[in-house]
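As the next step, I wrote out a protein sequence along with its fold in token form, included below for the reader:
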Amino acid sequence: MSGRDELSGAVYREVFDGLDDGLVLLDPGTGRITDTNDAFAALIGVPRESLLDRRLASVSNNDDRSAVASAVARLERAAAGESQAFGWTDR
């Protein structure tokens, strides 16, 4: 990895973890969690590392079927190469 790539990774991690809102990145092909920030891990109450490779539904209380259907549709569009960003409300 070049010095520039390492710096970009460090800046990404600092910004990602520095936000107060909980953030989750999902693999569009599997729907599994690939990264979370510290704020999300704190909301769930578990270490960040224990969330990796889990499905969002396994750590969510959101049972609104339309919200779940919307999230799945966005993941499918992301898997097809279309950039997606969306919010998820949870209890």
In short: The chain has three helices and two strands. The first helix runs from residue 3 to 18. The radius of gyration is 14 Å.
